TrEMBL record, chain A:
HAMAP family: GatA. PROSITE patterns: AMIDASES. One of its GO terms (molecular function) is transferase activity. Heterotrimer of A, B and C subunits. SUPFAM superfamilies: Amidase signature (AS) enzymes. This is Glutamyl-tRNA(Gln) amidotransferase subunit A. Belongs to the amidase family. GatA subfamily. It comes from Candidatus Odyssella acanthamoebae.
UniProtKB/TrEMBL annotation, chain B:
GO terms for biological process: glutaminyl-tRNAGln biosynthesis via transamidation; translation. Allows the formation of correctly charged Asn-tRNA(Asn) or Gln-tRNA(Gln) through the transamidation of misacylated Asp-tRNA(Asn) or Glu-tRNA(Gln) in organisms which lack either or both of asparaginyl-tRNA or glutaminyl-tRNA synthetases. The reaction takes place in the presence of glutamine and ATP through an activated phospho-Asp-tRNA(Asn) or phospho-Glu-tRNA(Gln). It is an enzyme of class 6 (ligase). Belongs to the GatB/GatE family. GatB subfamily. It comes from Candidatus Odyssella acanthamoebae. This is Aspartyl/glutamyl-tRNA(Asn/Gln) amidotransferase subunit B.
Amino acid sequence: MTKTNLTELTLTEAKDGLARKEFSALELTQAFIEAMEQNRHLNAYVTETPELALEQAKASDARLAAGNAGKLEGLPLAIKDLYCTKGVKTTASSKMLHNFVPQYESTVTQNLWNEGAVMLGKVAMDEFAMGSSNTTSYYGNVISPWKEKDRPEKELCPGGSSGGSAAAVAGRLALAATASDTGGSIRQPAAFTGLVGIKPTYGLCSRRGMIAYASSLDQAGPLTHTVKDAALMLEVMAGHDPLDSTSLNVEIPNFSSLLKSDLKGLKIGVPKEYIEGLGDEMLAEVNKGIEWAKSQGATIHEVSLPMTSYALPAYYVISPAEASSNLARYDGVRYGLRVEGSTLDELYENTRREGFGMEVRRRIMIGTYVLSAGYYDAYYLKAQRVRTLIQKDFERVFKEVDLLLTPTTPGSAFALDEKPTDPVHMYLQDIYTVTVNLANLPGIAIPSGLDQQGLPLSLQLIGPRLSEQRLLNAALALEECAGFSSLVKDLRKAA
Amino acid sequence: MSENKNLIQGRTGLWEVVIGLEVHAQVNSKAKLFDGCSTDFGADPNTQVGFFTAAMPGMLPVINHLCVDQAIKTGLGLNAVINKFSVFDRKNYFYADLPCGYQISQFTRPIVSGGYLDIDLEDGESKRINITRLHLEMDAGKSIHDLHPTKTYIDLNRSGIALMEIVSEPEMRSSAQAMAYVKKLRSILRYMGTCDGNMEQGSMRVDANISLRRPGQPFGTRAEIKNVNSIRFLGQAIEFEIARQLDILEDGGEIVQETRLFDPGKGETRSMRSKEDAHDYRYFPDPDLLPLRLTDERINAIHATMPELPDAKRQRLMAEFGLPLYDATVIVSERETADYYERAVAALTAKDKVQGAKQIANWLMGDVFAAMNRDNKTVETMPLEAKNLAGMIDLILDNTISGKIAKDVFLKMWESGKAPAALVEELGLKQITDASVIEQAVDEILTQHADKVADYKAGKETLFGFFVGQVMKATQGKANPGMVNDLIKKKLS
């Protein structure tokens, strides 16, 4: 295998290649560092850490040689810049934290390093994970490596908030990436860039050291090329953490070794509320998914989630409420940006006005409003009740079916200069994903095909709490049916 | 119910004082409520600050179960209901010494609700004060404004320390009752070891809500005095506040609902902030912490560790040793004093425990307290060991020394810390109980004062005391006074 196409490997292929000593971790890492340098126009990385990566790769080679390799030994990854990394700048793509260097490591990234992974750098995101297009970052837009067939000059949106993670993996600037999902921030970028993205059950991955957006919804997960890669990444990222009180104390299965293509006998529900009003192209995609599932021995059932239409309003009450509180700590007193003022209140106002971008300020104001005395009952409490009803919707449906099949997004990626300017329209990007967060359930986005412009489309599988293995197995079956990677290879050959 | 004796006579008629107290009691714990860092008092600024305490990005709170146990124990000691389901809320407001921008507290669902304690009033009566709730919360840090002309310094050592906020019903009717309440609460907390009650170090702080009303009328508008850190200041602050409100109301004015601070230097309260600029705290359940669920097993296990509390101990001391109510109340008011007393009683070897226990109480409340006050000592720092006090009482009871000699022995013990028996031996203070020795002394005195004996026999009976005094003098006070009396009586009859 030549050095130039090392970046074309999947995570699992690279792992196998290292095991067979076809190349070294150092060579692999070097290839990615070069790719990063050549693709800076994508603006995927906020902070590149090539020296650290090479050092880690050397250590990995030693461990590989000694025969005590970890599960991710020598595999170069991109880390979303909301995972705190000890001694490496961590910004959440905000001016507020432009100079912030944590003295501690997030649990999820520590889990990766414990298994020998290599960090290429920190990748961009929507500021504090607030956004669905990666256009709210202090460091500018991230560009998707994908191009429309008819308008190759247009810069496309990689999705958000994990836009840098998606662009880095899809653009072959990392084998895989960590991401995080509060309302769809793993699955929507996966859909826009032809990747697999899994948002696990709330509490499966520790939130310690992840810069919080909305604590009751935030969950870590990976962005990868394949379902197999996702299984491997997730099994390393997940695990009980006594330092996160909401972390689940459950045994994490060896997702990757238990992984097998399996839809046989499964009852797959298709929620009618998710299909109504869907455009023709995406509807056809869902129907394709239904046919694949049937061909694999699953049965299809129409189900109803009547609370669906209330999910987005509830989400846009609860998440800003928690955000307004979580982001109160950025006050210019202890770390991060400080803009002086003559009084304490002025220090706060100046710092927060300058440190936070528009979208963050908008959500802080919404959140402050919905929590304020006199409005709490009408907004926050009501939204929490809706959240409970949404959870009950899913509980009821999962008594009838094993998994749900839905679109991941209403359509394919949009051009950055054509993105919806109306924030409410923008929020609709999350319409198929937020219910999963509100219900604390796992969901996985699988690339299913290409639209007429040659852009990826994506299907989502949703499972009951802690059904990750079932979800991965079913996703693998759909992935095999879709044959997305060969579609992409053909596309590249044609290009 | 109005208590007529506490009503205040104003120019325009009678007024009733209504006082409710919120006591912030620091949980006795080596680590903070949500962070493993230390709670030691007096450490250098910002040396006891963990990542969560400093509100570093991504850092999460983890509940300290020992603090929860302490809150449960305190609730049990206040005869309260321990709620098996309680919730931590965020109380959001901006302040430089509040690193997260919110305080984690319990708002709608506290860990403890509905209890009471009985306060002891000066006339020997007791009064039951109901407790609304006890909830756990984290303390804020400290802003220091006077170290620099334009800057404020922040010390986060206190930030995140576990507090129990104990809220009373507005059932106190005078400053004396409020002081008695804090005294009693402090005593109970110290008995249980759930708070050290050290008000100077800020381990206990009191907020007092005070209003006046005409007897039988609804509550008047109240003012809140914040952060009073001594029982004496609390009394002063309440008295000042009553007088202030009385002046306003008698002149037909209205009380403004506001927060006031007590200035111990000037002995007055002054406005801190009014209701108009009061904070909208924007409470909501903390999404980083699951609701706190307690099991019966856990509550029962804590119940099993409960010490005897002051009221029960007082009853027992009165029943076992026949101590008067006043004495028993004084002895049990501080756990250290009660422990000392019981250690002394346990060390007695005299057969008559009741007699000995009464004597120990008398000595403790008399000479021991006086010496402690004089030398500025506490039960813990004074040189007199409980077993030595008991030993001295034993020597009195077995007639080795007289009560008078005991006063000397006590002073010598206080100075030297030595055991009483050794001192009596060393100083030759042993009481003379040998009848023949005493008889010889009596005979000598009577012989020397034959003239006075004649006067006595002629009817001048007041001379009896003179003879006793002379014998005692001749024996350097060591003769058993009872035996001296008896012998003189016999010889002169």
